[in-house]
Amino acid sequence: MSDHTELRKLKTQFYRWLLIDEMIAAGRYPNAQSMSVEIEVSSRTIKRDIEYFRDMIGAPIAYDRARRGYYYTEANYRLPLLLMQESEIFSIFLAEKVLAQYRNTPLYQSLKTVFEKLTGYLPDTVSIPTNMLQDNFSMFTEPAPELDQAVWQAVFNALRDSLTLSFDYRNPGRSEAIRRNVDPYHVVCYRGEWYLIGFCHYGKAERIYALSRMRNAVATASSFSRPATFNAEEYFGNHFGIFRGEEEYQVQLHFCVEAAPYVLERKWHHTEVKEGQADGSVMLTFSTNHLFEVKRWVLSWGKEVTVIAPLELREDVQRELAAAARNYGG
Questions:
Q1: Residue 22 CA, distance from chain mean position
Q2: Counting beta carbons within 10 angstroms of the beta carbon of residue 53, is it exposed (0 to 12), middle (13 to 18) or buried (19 or more)?
Q3: Contact at 8 Å (CB) between 298 and 313?
Q4: How many helices (H) and strands (E) are present in the chain, helices listed first?
Q5: pTM above threshold 0.90
């Protein structure tokens, strides 16, 4: 049987299941005979569907002999049906690969459980071979620190209940951790690292904290109200990476001919403008409010890029390259 034939069968089956679920949930106490007439299938097919609901999916279905029909023993129960297109079914299987980017977090196991439940609801007529995905698709994730389960849960609880979060935090390069009390506003993932944006009680300002550097985190009993003016997208603004600042910089970079094809094939920033030069090189211009990660990115291109502006970035990259050359005796 072809994949298209199986998909048609799958859609017909799901449509029938939807109708059966609606009839039972509506409290009509339908039986196999009445449903077979309305759906235009045999009563034997309806009975097989009912058995599948009860035995394979665990639906709380019972038969009322007095009313001669089926009903749900749990009043608000609805059948967890999935009616999807072929591309969507394929995406469900591919999602297992995508989960790899969350392996460093407690979220991974939760997502994996949800994924297994989701695929468990798909009937046997779905015939996308999982070995095909195993052999033909891969996902390489960036190195990322492991997150403490207790920290993750404390952050989640504080965010959910609008409670002040208290934790020990050690900044890079410092030997001692400092206790922080923060009103959590938003959590963001960037290149495998998870960050919390919140109002620091000590600094009296909004700060960004890496969850991997938190220890002994607890959601306190102190509640707060997140400012109505806070907006994560506006908070980061024209950021290039996770860091942000108050000053706006107009960055202009010149990429040589060899690097031009790689620069042109991607979108590096939402404000970017690319201009091809007569010699085949490319000028990339964009606005950002922080230069730290721009510098790191520029350094990754080596001799293939030259910073034109701003002067602050140009001089910083120049000093960094000079220092690196000295490490090699140059």
A1: 33
A2: buried
A3: yes
A4: 11, 11
A5: no
